[in-house]
Amino acid sequence: MELLKQKIIQEGIVLDGGVLKVDSFLNHQVDPELMMEIGRTFARLFRDSGVTRIMTIESSGIAPAVLTALELGVPMVFARKRKSLTLQEDLYTEKVYSFTKREESEVTVSKKFLAPAERVLIIDDFLANGEAALGMARIIRQAGAEVAGIGIVIEKSFQAGRGKLLEQGYRVESLARIASLEGGKAAFV
Ligand code: G4P
Ligand code: NA
Ligand code: NA
């Protein structure tokens, strides 16, 4: 997506450790027009996939996920993150380990908002090691539902996530694929 790449080039800040800061339009301040265009693009890519629901994880996945849901005319649910949780019967729960943050969290979705016959499109802001997307996919399978695909706003292609998701047979569509952040500059695939 050309508009997104321009935004990354103009406003992205490369931090140590291969981290791209995009606080001005995605992770803190949110650019509504850009999100609308992102929603339209995901909707176009997955229009024929029989999507009945969008799923993301709080918090930064919510903006692109809700605009994709609006375009496809389906509901959106976001998985909640908690440090530790006593088991609750009305929740689907999976553990997700973050390599970036070096911490494990539990992600949960209420059984009320995910039914067995659904086809769920996973949307997230970043794909790094793929653990968040894999956690969501496990929740969807726990419910007896299917993963219709995975839509990512910014993929860090130099990390392992994409490969792990493809290995499991999921369709992955990333709107910007970053090959390298070396020398403080984003280079695209
Ligand atoms: P993974 O799911 O692909 O394995 O990613 P990982 O655990 O490493 O990422 C942990 C958090 O850091 C996620 O946000 C993810 O979106 C974010 N992240 C990873 N790499 C980058 C990066 O280069 N730039 C930015 N801006 N974020 C990155 P989170 O903890 O879920 O936070 P939230 O922003 O969604 O609330
Ligand atoms: Na994030
Ligand atoms: Na995220």
UniProtKB/TrEMBL annotation:
<dbReference type="Pfam" id="PF00156">
    <property type="entry name" value="Pribosyltran"/>
</dbReference>
<dbReference type="InterPro" id="IPR000836">
    <property type="entry name" value="PRTase_dom"/>
</dbReference>
<keyword id="KW-0808">Transferase</keyword>
<feature type="binding site">
    <location>
        <position position="27"/>
    </location>
    <ligand>
        <name>xanthine</name>
    </ligand>
</feature>
<comment type="subunit">
    <text>Homodimer.</text>
</comment>
<dbReference type="InterPro" id="IPR010079">
    <property type="entry name" value="Xanthine_PRibTrfase"/>
</dbReference>
<comment type="similarity">
    <text>Belongs to the purine/pyrimidine phosphoribosyltransferase family. Xpt subfamily.</text>
</comment>
<dbReference type="GO" id="GO:0005737">
    <property type="term" value="C:cytoplasm"/>
</dbReference>
<keyword id="KW-0660">Purine salvage</keyword>
<dbReference type="GO" id="GO:0006166">
    <property type="term" value="P:purine ribonucleoside salvage"/>
</dbReference>
<comment type="pathway">
    <text>Purine metabolism; XMP biosynthesis via salvage pathway; XMP from xanthine: step 1/1.</text>
</comment>
<dbReference type="InterPro" id="IPR029057">
    <property type="entry name" value="PRTase-like"/>
</dbReference>
<keyword id="KW-0963">Cytoplasm</keyword>
<feature type="binding site">
    <location>
        <position position="156"/>
    </location>
    <ligand>
        <name>xanthine</name>
    </ligand>
</feature>
<comment type="function">
    <text>Converts the preformed base xanthine, a product of nucleic acid breakdown, to xanthosine 5'-monophosphate (XMP), so it can be reused for RNA or DNA synthesis.</text>
</comment>
<dbReference type="GO" id="GO:0000310">
    <property type="term" value="F:xanthine phosphoribosyltransferase activity"/>
</dbReference>
<protein>
    <recommendedName>
        <fullName>Xanthine phosphoribosyltransferase</fullName>
        <ecNumber>2.4.2.22</ecNumber>
    </recommendedName>
</protein>
<dbReference type="InterPro" id="IPR050118">
    <property type="entry name" value="Pur/Pyrimidine_PRTase"/>
</dbReference>
<dbReference type="GO" id="GO:0046110">
    <property type="term" value="P:xanthine metabolic process"/>
</dbReference>
<keyword id="KW-0328">Glycosyltransferase</keyword>
<feature type="binding site">
    <location>
        <begin position="128"/>
        <end position="132"/>
    </location>
    <ligand>
        <name>5-phospho-alpha-D-ribose 1-diphosphate</name>
    </ligand>
</feature>
<feature type="domain" description="Phosphoribosyltransferase">
    <location>
        <begin position="32"/>
        <end position="157"/>
    </location>
</feature>
<dbReference type="GO" id="GO:0032265">
    <property type="term" value="P:XMP salvage"/>
</dbReference>
<feature type="binding site">
    <location>
        <position position="20"/>
    </location>
    <ligand>
        <name>xanthine</name>
    </ligand>
</feature>
